[in-house]
């Protein structure tokens, strides 16, 4: 994994870095992608860093996004063992300082089984490390990039509560994608996100307005998969922290407005060999005409390995949808389908933003930039799970030498979309969870997520569905209270 700048490699280097500090901030990630952390005294931190780690209450894998304990006994954290401690292992390579918190030192942790010292399969960082190790078995390294779209409101946590989360004021009015004028409004906030990200060790490739009132989009720089997921999670933390200082609430909800496009978490992926070469790219000799034997023209500038990888994603994406779209709200983003560039079918195409998987290859980019963009996830995804799911499916496709079973989206007809040639993705979290948890789900296979993960994570999604099913919404009251 690529370390952040100046990350310590030895205990002595760590002590030298923290020489003038009295406290350290640490955090891990729960299944919903929420940072869970604490401040530690420097002495306690150094003691933990010099050993296997420190104890952290396992309830973070036993409660939901609002700290309600799951009623279903899950495999990692449950009442039967009294929510015993798990081991939080400090990852020194994630060292950085938080510039908006007086430069306090910050480290991420991974969670381990306290007895075996093995990564917890339900720990987001743990499962992505397991995924990276699986790629290493193929002599491959996983690389990724994430683009976030997010609405911004002129609100505070208190005003959100006072307004009961209704009639919120957008940061700017109107639909102004790629606007140079709208960035002049709230200019300090807009620039602070970019500048503080740089200081926080998160490289940004692009930062601009997107279509919608108060919408921004930020593309995070391409890097190895674990570092990318870390950066994606920490970018949300950064943006929300910077927003607080400017009286702004950014939201990474997938669909905060019913009549507007949602917020994507588009994820770009490729594999590299041990020399660092992008194995999705063609050789120079093949670039003039494309690869002989390609399934169709849309993939002729992808390597055979990349075509297998693509086929693997298409073959199994419906079985891992809760890893890509984990919330009730996320499926509402997909309802609009191609109209909102939020595909809800299992499709692919060269440079097509209408497809679920966009092929980015020559001639539109140099060979070294060849990659796949998975357009299904929303901004509310847990990037560790989403990236893991994409790579595990792709590696499965390579291992099985899977072939593309459908033509690209540009060749599909209206009849193809009606007669079942084109398969739809699950349209709700409930349907997606049921599919993932069925006995023959690809998610359960060896080399994929396995039964332990599926049962635990599936249980958390069943809880989310149950909470939703019990809720009475404003829409229901307005529709039925008088006339039903």
Automatic annotation (TrEMBL):
The keyword Cell membrane does not apply. GO terms for molecular function: ATP binding; glutamine synthetase activity. Keywords: ATP-binding, Ligase, Nucleotide-binding. It holds the Pfam family Gln-synt_C. SMART domains: Gln-synt_C. Residues 124-484 form the GS catalytic domain. The keyword Translocase does not apply. GO terms for biological process: biogenic amine metabolic process; glutamine biosynthetic process. Gene3D superfamilies: Glutamine synthetase, N-terminal domain (3.10.20.70), Glutamine synthetase/guanido kinase, catalytic domain (3.30.590.10). PANTHER family: GAMMA-GLUTAMYLPUTRESCINE SYNTHETASE, TYPE-1 GLUTAMINE SYNTHETASE 2. This is Glutamine synthetase. The lineage of its organism: Eukaryota, Fungi, Dikarya, Basidiomycota, Agaricomycotina.
């Amino acid at each position: 994994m690529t370390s952040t700048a100046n990350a310590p490699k030895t205990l002595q280097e760590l002590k030298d870095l923290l020489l003038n500090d009295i406290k350290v901030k640490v955090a891990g990630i729960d299944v919903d992608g929420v940072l869970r952390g604490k401040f530690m005294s420097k002495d306690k931190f150094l003691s933990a860093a010099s050993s296997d780690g420190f104890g952290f209450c396992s309830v973070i894998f036993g409660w939901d996004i609002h700290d309600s304990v799951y009623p279903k006994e899950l495999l990692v954290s449950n009442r039967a063992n009294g929510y015993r401690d798990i081991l939080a292992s400090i990852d020194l390579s994630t060292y950085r300082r938080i510039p908006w918190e007086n430069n306090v030192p910050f480290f991420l942790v991974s969670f381990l089984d306290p007895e075996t010292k093995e990564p917890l399969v339900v720990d987001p960082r743990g499962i992505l490390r397991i995924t990276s190790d699986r790629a290493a078995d193929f002599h491959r390294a996983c690389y990724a990039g994430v683009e976030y779209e997010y609405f911004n409101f002129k609100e505070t946590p208190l005003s959100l509560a006072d307004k009961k989360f209704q009639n919120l004021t957008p940061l700017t009015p109107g639909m102004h994608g790629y606007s140079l004028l709208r960035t002049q409004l709230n200019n300090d906030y807009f620039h602070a996100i970019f500048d503080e990200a740089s200081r926080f060790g998160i490289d940004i490739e692009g930062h601009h307005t997107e279509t919608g009132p108060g919408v921004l989009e930020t593309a995070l720089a391409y890097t190895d998969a674990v570092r990318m997921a870390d950066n994606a999670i920490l970018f949300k933390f950064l943006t929300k922290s910077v927003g607080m200082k400017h009286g702004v609430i950014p939201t990474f909800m997938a669909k905060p407005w019913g009549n507007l496009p949602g917020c994507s978490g588009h994820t770009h992926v490729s594999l590299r060999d041990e020399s660092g070469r992008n194995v999705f790219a063609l050789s120079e000799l093949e670039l003039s005409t494309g690869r002989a034997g390609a399934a169709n023209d849309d993939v002729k500038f992808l390597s055979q390995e990349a075509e297998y990888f693509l086929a693997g994603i298409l073959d199994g994406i419906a079985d891992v949808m809760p890893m890509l779209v984990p919330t009730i709200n996320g499926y509402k983003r997909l309802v609009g389908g191609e109209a909102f560039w939020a595909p809800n079918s299992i499709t692919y195409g060269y440079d097509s933003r209408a497809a679920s998987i966009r092929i980015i290859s020559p001639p539109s980019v140099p060979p070294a930039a060849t990659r796949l963009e998975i357009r299904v996830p929303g901004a509310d995804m847990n990037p560790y799970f989403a990236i893991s799911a994409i790579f595990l499916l792709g590696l499965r496709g390579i291992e099985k030498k899977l072939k593309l079973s459908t033509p690209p989206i540009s060749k599909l007809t209206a009849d193809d979309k009606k007669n079942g040639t084109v398969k739809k993705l699950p349209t709700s979290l409930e349907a997606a969870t049921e599919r993932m948890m069925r006995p023959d789900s690809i998610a359960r296979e060896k080399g994929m997520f396995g039964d332990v993960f599926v049962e635990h994570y599936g249980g958390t999604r069943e809880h989310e569905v149950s909470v939703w099913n019990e809720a009475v919404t404003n829409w229901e009251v307005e529709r039925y209270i008088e006339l039903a």
